[in-house]
Structure formats: C-alpha cells, structure tokens
C-alpha cells in the first residue's frame, strides 16, 4: 500500500474524497495527531511543570501559536486539576489560528455566528478583555447549553452573551461598552474578581444607584429589551424570605430541594446582581440599521439563551419556570426542538421568551424603538456548519452511525446544495453585521471546494465592498494556500492539526456602489 495513504479508509469516504478532488494522502497522519491545549493565562515555567506532572505528559509549546501546547493524543486532560480549575482547555491549534486570523484586539465587539460548543468563543473572550465583548450565536439549544457551561468553566462569561438564533437572520447589535464599564464599576465586578465565570449578561443595560447606595436599580436599554433587577439591601434579603445567619452568611431557601444554601453577603450580592432576570421581549426587536440610518430588512427575533443563570436547556441544573402561562408552552416546544432532527440546511427559530432568575420575580420590560445609526461588530467569525471531512476522528463516528448515514447526509447532492446555501447565507449575514473597515473570518473543517472557495467566490461576486485579504500571521503557520488567493488550508499531514479552511474578508472602509 502507498505509505502516503491512510489505512482502512471506508469506501464511502473514499468515494466522497474522489468526488470532491480531496487527496486522501492528507489524512495519513490523522490517526497520530497531537491534541492541543491552551492556557487561559500565559503560564510560568513552574505552572507548566505542575500541569505536566498532573497530566503525566510533556507539554510541547506550539511555536507558531503562542499560548498553545501539544500533548500526545491519548492524554486525558479532564481529570487534571488544571482542567478542573479552568486553567487549561482543549482547543485544536487550527481553531486557534482561525481566531488569530481575526486579529481580535482588546475592546473589540466580536460576533461568533456559529459559536457552539464555544472553544473559539472562549479564546475571543480572552482577546477582547478587558473592555470588549463577545456575542455567540447558535441554532442548537443543547450545543448552546454546552457553550454556556464552557464559558462559565473557563471564566469567559463575564464579557460574553449567547443567543439561540438562526445565524442567517440574526440581527442583534453589539452591546454598549459604556454600560459594561459602568456596570463593572458600580458593582465592583472588575476583571479578575470572583464574578468572573458567573455569566454576567450586560448588553444594553442602564445601571443606576439610588440614594440608598447599596441598592441597584437597573433599567432596560431602549434598544435591547434586557435588564437586571435590583436587590442587595437588608430589606430586600428579608423580602425574599431569606435570613442572615450569625456568621453573616445569608440563607437562601431553595423551594425545589427544600434546603437552604448559605452564601456570604458578598457572594449573595454578586449572585443577585448577576442572576437577575434578563428579558427578551416576545416581539421583534428593532432591526439593525445600516450606516446610512435606513433599516435593514426585518429579521427573526433572537432568543436569549444564556447569561446570569439558567435559561433554556441546562447541564446539571433545572431550568426555571418563566411564567405560569409560558412555561408549559415553552417546555413543550423545547421538548419538540430536542426531538426534532435539525435539517442540514438550517431551520427557522421561533421567538420565545427565555427567562431565569433565582428567587427573583422577573419583570417584562418595555422597549422603545431604536433610533439612529446602529453600531456594528468590529470582527465577525463565521465558523460554519459543514461536512466535517477535515477530521477523520469526526468522520470515524460514521463507523457507529453507519456509512449509509454518511452517504445520505454528506453525499446527497440536494443536502450538499442546501449546506452550501446555508454557508453562503451565514457568511452574508455575518458580513451585514460587520462594520466598514472590520474583518470577518469564514472557516470550515471541510476540504471540499464547494464549501470553501466556491462559497467565498459566490459571496464576493455579490459583495463588491468585500475583499479577501492576506493573513499576515500565516507567514509562520504550517498551512497551505487554498485555490482562492489569500485563503488557507490546514491539513493534518502538513500542520499536524485538524483540517480547517480559513478565508479572511475585510469590509471596505469607504464604498460607493
Ligand atoms: C463547526 S460548528 C462551530 C464550532 C464552534 N465555532 C467552536 O469553535 O466551538 C458549527 C455550528 O454551527 C451551528 N449552526 C448550524 N446552522 C446554524 C444556523 N443556521 N445558525 C447558527 N448556527 C448554526 C451548529 O449548531 C454548530 O454548533
């Protein structure tokens, strides 16, 4: 057998490769690829040594990608202290490269249009800190729930928000940075405080402190329909049926378990501030406006998925009732949503009111029509749904699912056409939400031209204000050029990473059609 060929590739997959001009040789090292981890904060030599000891393996720095380390593929990281403490997380180096290509800067507002399960969003959250924001969107409730868990675990939730929405129609503006700073200042929840990882949801919230000082009243932002409630005073503690223990801790009754959980006043204050309801009105939010101030077409309203506490499907926690009327209806629709197999061409999302709040009665807050120019995102990542053929590990799952399923899902021309159509619409909508002068990265973990260069070329034909640009950092990356100028491909044989296609697209600063 040709040593360049991977052994025992299933015939269906070989047929797929042949049909898409994919050289099977690129998979030859796929079975022995390293796994990659990233340190949340730049590690000292002592920390690296300690983590190596915990993992029982050497961490090899990835020379071309700062903060990333390679490990032998079979090393399990989940049991280690470093992983449990959120010090390291698993993310393929090619995924890291996609985020690096975006060149995210502190203070940027970044949109991640296909965010789940969230590894790239965690990285983005780190890069935009301390003053920027990251907005994640995904159409899959369970995957979004996993994303929320990940964000919390890695202390990335403080500047992130998540929407359950169709990325082809998502239309929410970036949050107001001014408010983010104001909220942090007033609550004392600065970067690195214990609030990190709790999931603050801050978009468009106008926070004010009244005469009583400790009391925080929060009003909804006119554009957004979200808000934080107030609470934290002694009277509010009593009003909530809570009591202070002699050591100063506050007993918070949990009606479901019948037990009290004890929190220090500080913890209580923080959780109150963070866990108060965020509200998405059950009506269409004001659409994003173009820079010229004209409303862009009406889009589907998004559902709020995650912020301070549980909304929507949860991991290891119960979702809270929203209102007597709505909870039943939504419970049913969520069940239906879980049962339903998501079509490959995307799906419609219905407006739903998600809600949460521990012991807090949520208020539905009124919005006013937004006015003036919409703020758009500085950077957008469209890490699109694809056939995942860049990773044999993923493709091998069809050993269990059955290769007839592969043929039906991945090789059926109608489904492929629907998929590439979805990719094009995700790219177009991401670009619509990008500000002039901003950059967008389109990536897939497929090697087919149809899902990569062809999608980008079709997009460029329809968007004269878009340019594919070179990625300067890539000069030192172990990748190969795509067939469209400036596009890149990470292939397992060359990069020793999972497969990834990356195109960086700039929106021209000044453009007259
Ligand atoms: C390749 S995965 C994204 C991986 C993610 N960026 C990460 O780094 O963890 C593609 C995601 O697109 C989501 N998706 C599929 N169709 C979508 C749509 N119409 N709108 C938004 N997300 C969609 C899928 O649920 C899936 O989570």
TrEMBL record:
Gene3D superfamilies: Vaccinia Virus protein VP39. The active site is at residue 445. Residues 237-264, 280-344 are annotated as: Disordered. The keyword Zinc-finger does not apply. One of its GO terms (molecular function) is RNA methyltransferase activity. S-adenosyl-L-methionine binds at residue 383. Residues 377-508 form the SAM-dependent MTase RsmB/NOP-type domain. This is SAM-dependent MTase RsmB/NOP-type domain-containing protein.
């Amino acid at each position: 057998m040709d040593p360049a060929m991977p052994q025992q590739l299933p015939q269906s997959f070989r047929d797929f490769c042949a049909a898409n001009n994919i050289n099977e040789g690129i998979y030859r090292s796929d079975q022995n690829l390293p796994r990659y981890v990233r340190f949340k904060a730049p590690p000292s030599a002592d920390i690296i040594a300690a983590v190596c000891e915990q993992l029982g393996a050497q961490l090899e720095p990835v020379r071309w990608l700062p903060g990333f380390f390679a490990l032998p593929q079979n090393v399990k990281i989940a049991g280690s202290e470093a992983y449990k403490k959120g010090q390291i997380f698993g993310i393929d180096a090619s995924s890291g490269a996609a985020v690096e290509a975006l060149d995210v800067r502190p203070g940027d507002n970044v949109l991640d249009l296909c965010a789940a399960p969230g590894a790239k969003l965690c990285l983005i959250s780190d890069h935009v800190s301390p003053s920027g924001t990251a907005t994640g969107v995904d159409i899959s409730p369970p995957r979004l729930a996993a994303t929320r868990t990940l964000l919390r675990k890695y202390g990335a939730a403080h500047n992130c928000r998540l929407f359950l929405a169709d990325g082809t129609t998502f239309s929410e503006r970036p949050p107001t940075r001014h408010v983010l700073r104001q909220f942090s200042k007033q609550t004392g929840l600065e970067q690195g405080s214990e609030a990190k990882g709790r999931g603050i949801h801050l978009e468009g919230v106008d926070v004010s402190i009244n005469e009583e000082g400790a009391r925080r009243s929060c009003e909804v932002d006119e554009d957004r329909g979200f808000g934080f409630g107030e609470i934290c005073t002694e009277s509010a503690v009593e009003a909530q049926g809570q009591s202070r223990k002699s050591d100063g801790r506050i007993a918070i009754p949990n009606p479901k378990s019948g037990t009290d959980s004890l929190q220090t006043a500080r913890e209580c204050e923080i959780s109150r501030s963070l866990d108060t309801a965020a509200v998405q009105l059950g009506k269409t939010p004001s659409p994003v406006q173009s820079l010229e101030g004209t409303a862009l077409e009406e889009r589907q309203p998004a559902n709020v998925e995650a912020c301070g506490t549980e909304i929507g499907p949860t991991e290891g926690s119960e979702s809270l009732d929203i209102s007597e009327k709505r909870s039943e209806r939504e419970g049913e629709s969520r069940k239906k949503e879980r049962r339903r197999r998501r079509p490959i061409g995307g799906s419609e999302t219905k407006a739903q009111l998600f809600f949460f709040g521990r012991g807090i009665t949520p208020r539905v807050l009124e919005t006013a029509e937004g006015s003036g120019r919409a703020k758009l995102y500085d950077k957008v990542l469209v890490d699109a749904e694809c056939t995942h053929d860049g990773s044999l590990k993923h493709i091998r799952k069809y050993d269990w699912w059955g290769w007839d399923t592969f043929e039906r899902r991945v090789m059926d021309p109608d489904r492929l056409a629907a998929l590439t159509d979805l990719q094009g619409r995700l790219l177009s909508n991401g670009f619509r939400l990008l500000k002039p002068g901003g950059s967008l990265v389109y990536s897939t973990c497929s090697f087919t031209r149809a899902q990569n260069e062809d999608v980008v070329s079709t997009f460029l034909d329809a968007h004269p204000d878009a340019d594919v640009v070179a990625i300067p950092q890539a000069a030192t990356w172990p990748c190969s050029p795509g067939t469209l100028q400036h596009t890149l491909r990470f292939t397992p044989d060359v990069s020793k990473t999972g497969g990834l296609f990356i195109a960086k697209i700039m929106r021209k600063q000044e453009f007259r059609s």
